[in-house]
Amino acid sequence: MKVIIDTDPGQDDAAAIMLALGSPEIDVLGITAVAGNVPLALTERNARMVCEMCGRTDIKVYAGADKPLSRPLVTAEHVHGKTGLDGPELFEPSFPLQPGHAVDFIVQTLMNEAPGTVSLCPIGPLTNIALALQKEPAITGRIQQIVLMGGGYFAQGNITPAAEFNIFVDPEAAAVVFACGAPVIMMPLDVTHKVMTTKSRVEKIRAVDNRAARALTEMLLFYERFDEAKYGTDGGPLHDPTTIAWLLKPDLFAGRECNVEIETTSKLTRGATVVDWWGVTKRGKNALVLGDVNADGFFDLLTERLANLG
Ligand code: BDR
Ligand code: CA
What we know:
By secondary structure, the protein is of the alpha/beta class. The chain has a single domain, classed as Ribonucleoside hydrolase-like (Inosine-uridine Nucleoside N-ribohydrolase, Chain A, Alpha-Beta Complex). The protein is 38% helix and 16% strand. It contains 12 helices and 10 strands. The strands form 2 sheets. The chain has an 8-stranded mixed beta sheet, with helices on both faces. Helix 1 links the parallel strand 1 and strand 2. Helix 1 packs parallel to helix 11, helix 5 crosses helix 7 and helix 9 packs antiparallel against helix 10. The chain starts with a strand and ends with a helix. The model has no long low-confidence stretch (mean pLDDT 97). The chain binds beta-D-ribofuranose and calcium ion. The site of calcium ion has 7 residues, from loops.
């Protein structure tokens, strides 16, 4: 499976990158960074740092958009810490960023590879993906699928009562992506709030005891503090690696094809994902919306694949 990961690391983004790099079925063609959890200068550096933690300084990392399509950037240092990757000891990555813009890399890769063979995995705001679709509309028919972490329906929002962070930050970009016509797989909070980093799951990750797993353990222990206090749970939701897990083992998940529209105009509900779960409109189905997950199966997969990074 050929994959481009579009990301704003983020501790849970780091877990997604590690799961992909630890999985022999997945060929990571490149990682594109976007502004989100923290500004772009940090997300692109964090993406390279995570690759290096996995011993993969060969991965191509590109910097993309430093702000949403038409709004000022909103960040989430209150969740992820000042660096976006707080927890482990951080360092300056030893390998450089690729020259060129992430959006050009996405377009060129999709135009050069055989149609229907490259999946996009956006796990941050959807700015880079929307810009690529706008720059070269011909990529739409060449994308195998867009497996994105974003939105919520029954679970509603996390950054506001109505909206999930990735969609809230750039709702106009999300609207472009959901309307584009390529197959969209949506991994909303409804799923990610079922994959909690409980103490026993984090201990199993710690026990893998290689560089990546040790770093991830420290990240998770930092990152879950905010959500534990917010939700009163043992651990916090591990959002982003669910996208990679779906590529690897879709049977761990359940959902249905729905229409999804994005609220872009309301001040109160900006970035809400309006999912027609019950099919009460005649609007066309534009996404596979996941709603359920085998959480133990997901953590077993993550832990097993981290061990490959030794
Ligand atoms: C999403 O927002 C970010 O803070 C996380 O990395 C994840 O992609 C969850 O709402
Ligand atoms: Ca993210």
